[in-house]
Specification:
three-stranded antiparallel β-sheet; Kinase-like_dom_sf; alpha+beta; 11 strands; Lipopolysaccharide kinase (Kdo/WaaP) family protein
Length: 216
Amino acid sequence: MQRVSAADLSRLTADATVLEQDGLGPKVLRLQDGSFLKLFRKRRYFSSETLKPYAKRFADNATTLQRLGFTCPQIVGVYRVEDPVNGTAVHYLPLPGDTLRSRLEQAAPARATQLIGKFGHLLARLHRKGVYFRSIHLGNVLVLPSDELALIDIADMHIGRFPLSLHKRLRNLKHMRRYPQDSNWLFEQYQDVLLQAYQAEEPRHAEALLARTQRP
């Protein structure tokens, strides 16, 4: 990780546009050159962030995902910053497109069916290649201008050497149920589409998932 002084950080973020913030200040910035800077807060206690900062996880995950054939942001740099609030940052090139959630909000049924099918294929490929994207939801999947899907906000994941167990696959689906709109599309309106697409990639696991995600 490259160390960035307070002065260098100030120069880097001069005239940047704040895209996301909380009570402590900016969290994601669009810099003057169009690249993004994502800031990660300092922790006051020992945690997994201490052992491996989220900025480094984000960058390492991007490299591994690209090697596995998934589309995600291109990393420019990973920084340890001199800042009273933030400890680390990841600098990356954003991807063009809209979130899958926003596209579905505007989609006619035929288009929604197509998009959910693409997501089912993507989800099955992630699971088959050992990617456990803990915080996956339809807001951190992008629809690119090519109509292919890409992943963003990729710090919170574990990438193993083997396909995910059925237990982890089910946990991934359970996480997506936390978002009412996502849950309605994926597990109510278009559940059959999702599972048919998943089955095309992972037939054995799709049958097990279907048995556990049927509507009551």
